[in-house]
Amino acid sequence: MRERVPMTNVDPDRPPVRTRTADGVLEVVLDRPKANAIDAATSRSLGEVFAGFRDDPQLRVAILTGAGERFFSAGWDLGAAAGGEEFEADYGKGGFGGFCELPDRNKPVVCAVNGLAVGGGFELVLAAEFVVAVEHAEFFLPETGLGIIPDAGAVRLPRVLPPVVANEVLYAGRRLNAEEAKRWGLVNRVVAPGDLIEEAWALARRITAAAPLAVEAIMAVNQATRDRPLDEAFVHLRSGDLVAYERMLASDDAQEGPRAFTEKREPRWQGR
């Protein structure tokens, strides 16, 4: 029997987006009962949060999770759609969900998937650099049954799944459970519900322990070369046109790393 995604029941006194920061990590909690669905206003709020994350030199990694245990996010708020919100509404500077299309995003996002990732919720997962999921998480795209398509999913999913698997998810709404998603490379690790946030923070702290300019350079290289043939990718890498890569090579941190290794101490990164 097909599960019905509940309509959003929003408490006007309850903020739909909550944040906290510590040790260079930003945690973002999507909290819109009953299914953490995202309307245009919430998407714009998320966009402001993630733009602030991008622009704050003290923040290195973001974690995105949903409130509750059943839904990570049900994606586009069908209640808002029924009320007249258009499919191509203004979702803010980062596109739907705040970070999927955020210009110049140069810091990684960890999705801590606490339940069902449906439609646009799954698309958020596909846009993240790292994914930790609970054992009962599921990932699916029901859009064709609603008369629309998953725009970002139709672009991203065939790049990360074998064609026949991606096609079944996109065309027929196949659900992937957490272990399947991990097996196909969509999830880094699957954990018990009580361990989700702790594991996401542990992963984020391992990233913050790395040199910040090196992390930024990896993201820039990946974004600039992933659609190029291998020989063209290496030519572009060494062309001098990748600003983040050249900045990393010329940085004090590029000297500090080898120096700390030979002196048998922890490196002291300066981000310059």
Notes on the protein architecture:
The protein is 40% helix and 15% strand. It has helices at 40-55, 78-82, 120-127, 151-160, 163-172, 178-183, 196-208, 212-225, 230-237, 243-249, 252-262; strands at 17-22, 25-30, 61-66, 71-73, 109-113, 116-118, 130-134, 138-140, 176-177, 189-191. The protein has 272 residues and is an alpha/beta fold. It folds into two domains: 17-208, 2-enoyl-CoA Hydratase, Chain A, domain 1 (Alpha-Beta Complex); 212-262.
CATH fold label of the largest domain: 2-enoyl-CoA Hydratase, Chain A, domain 1
Q: Trace the largest sheet across and list its strands.
A: 1-2-3-5-7-10
The amount of helix comes to 25-40%
How many β-strand stretches? Answer: 10
Biggest sheet architecture: 6 strands, mixed
CATH architecture of the largest domain: Alpha-Beta Complex
What is the average per-residue confidence, as pLDDT, rounded to a whole number? 92
Can you tell me the CATH class of the largest domain?
A: Alpha Beta
Indicate the overall shape: globular
CATH superfamily of the largest domain: 2-enoyl-CoA Hydratase, Chain A, domain 1
H/E order of the elements?
EEHEEHEEHEEHHEHEHHHHH
Strand content: 15-25%
Query: How far apart are the termini?
Result: 56 Å
Helix/strand structural class: alpha/beta
Radius of gyration, Cα only, in angstroms?
19 Å
Q: Low-confidence runs (pLDDT<50, min 5 residues)?
A: 1-5
Helix run count: 11
Question: How many domains make up the coordinates?
Answer: 2
